[in-house]
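As the work plan foresaw, the team has encoded backbone shapes as discrete tokens. One protein thus recorded appears below exactly as we store it.

:::
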Amino acid sequence: MPVVKLHEGGRHTGVSMMYDAEVREDIVMRTAGHASKEISQRYNHPMVEAHLAAAGQVSALVRKAGKRTS
């Protein structure tokens, strides 16, 4: 197991989990003490499940749009 510093493991994971849980960005920023969106997003490492969910949402939107043009 690699050594993970508390700052990297706890803070990054916490921010990423808040984003994955769809916590409002301003709440995430305040909780983590970030002064800007850019800093907050630097700590955000979305999980694979979040990427898969996003792909599913886009896919559903495309299918829905395709049904309207038929």
